[in-house]
Design goal:
Layout: H1 3-22, H2 27-36, H3 42-45, H4 48-51, H5 53-59, E1 67-71, H6 79-86, E2 91-96, H7 104-118, H8 121-124, E3 128-131, E4 146-152, H9 155-159, H10 163-176, E5 177-190, E6 205-206, H11 207-216, E7 220-225, H12 255-261, E8 266-272
Parallel strand pairs: 1-2, 1-4, 2-3, 4-5, 5-6
Antiparallel strand pairs: 5-8, 7-8
Helix pairs in contact: 2-6
Amino acid sequence: MNYTRQACAAVIAFGMMSTALAAAPGADEALKAAVASDQRTPAYAQRDAARHPYETLSFFGIQPTMTVVELSPGGGWYTEILAPYLRDAGHYIAAAYSENSPTEYRRGYTVNFKKKLAADPDRFGKVQLAVFEPPTELSFAPAGSADLVLTFRNLHNWLSYGDDNMKRVFQSVYDTLKPGGVFGVVEHRLPEDMPQDATASSGYMHESYVIGVAKSVGFELAGKSEINGNPRDTADHPNGVWALPPTYRNKDKDRERYQAIGESDRMTLKFVKP
């Protein structure tokens, strides 16, 4: 990877982020409070140094009055930040797998996610659940209703259904957003000089591929950021990205080396619907 180029992109991205925050006094303080909350799961908060939630959400231009959709919230890592932040003046839609999913692990994710929400109605009582089950169920919010759609480290899963279905997912996001709305993407990044297989089986994807799919459905690339970049990650590990923390799929084999690398190198891309 050309990290000189990436460092320049980071400077540009930081400038864009600073401008966005300056336009909304107080919004950044509310976001800082949501990230710093002692109600977050401790194991989740420990990952902030690698995932940079405040910087990432700020780069995407989040505001507390927005309608925000998160696609595939998983165990609710970002839900613990987004739900309290949007509770009073905004609207948070968690678009999760169906409880009737044909895939067992997907059903399990949703059952556990619903239990999490039900266990803390003060924080999560206003969360709206929707179904997002690619490649078949993609109507997770009304057309033209969302200010911001977010997804974190999920694109490689969608690619397993092929290029056409990947475009269908991006098209569904485009259709859901208002004009001027933002699609914020964080994904494991594969160096452009390394081959990406058709299903992204390593978990890593080319940034150029993601940008190409987004542009093919009408999005404009509004910015890139190196907030979640990691130059230590060579993206060539046995068992792919899951060799790295927090998964450590290779267990004790080379664990210290993977721990020293840290979480994966990630693209952070901001797309806008014209």
